[in-house]
Request: fold
Amino acid sequence: QVAARVRNLTKSYGSGDARVVALDDVSVDLEAGRFTAVMGPSGSGKSTLMHCCAALDRGDSGSVVIGEQDLTTLKDAALTRLRREEVGFVFQSFNLVPTLTARENILLPLSIAGRKPDPGWFDVVIDTVDLRPRLTHKPNELSGGQQQRVAVARALISRPRIVFADEPTGNLDSRSGAEVLSLLRAAVDDHGQTVVMVTHDPLAAAYCDRVLFLADGRVVHDLERPDREQVL
Ligand code: ADP
Ligand code: ADP
Reply:
């Protein structure tokens, strides 16, 4: 089963001499129930690919299908719904709301949509990210690792088809980073979720089932369970 099907996706920024091709005819299937890493040099198109797949941005041509829906042809209202209900996103910089508690931040995607979590699911998520004693704290009362765990919980709370994480360990020390990677792994192994993560860290890629390498807006390698030497 495929969680996101990308076909001939092309996107450029700017025009004339300043035109930059960020994605150049990318086709890839992101399978459901797997943890995929996206690696490659800075500027190779990793963030653009994630943003187009997560309905945060649109390609110029080609298609991205999530579930039965082609993001490239959806109207804005349908895109907004898909972004809220069918995908989760974790940013390198956490992006928590500073005035809300951890609990309120985690529930935010549901409160915006006027929904409640599925019975039991809030507890599953909280236990997965190990945040129960911190639920009443505001972001500035949490460590970086705890804030990122809140951000991961927020991405999981609506049980999206697919969770995208853009360098989720980029601002964390190695221990906190390992905790975040373990819980993304657990989301896949224990709860059948689908995770796609941009990373520069070969150790992070070692948590994944598959590693895609981008260069100049193209997929140049696609490895199944690579060993260490292949990602270094
Ligand atoms: P990566 O995530 O691999 O660093 P990006 O997807 O961020 O790559 O960027 C791919 C290319 O597109 C780079 O050359 C980058 O400078 C350019 N780019 C990305 N976003 C924008 C933007 N909003 N405006 C102009 N150029 C952009
Ligand atoms: P990363 O490489 O960590 O993915 P970047 O620093 O390339 O992140 O990009 C951070 C943000 O800035 C992204 O939202 C991207 O779209 C935007 N961006 C990247 N390159 C450019 C650019 N040349 N001009 C304008 N915005 C850009």
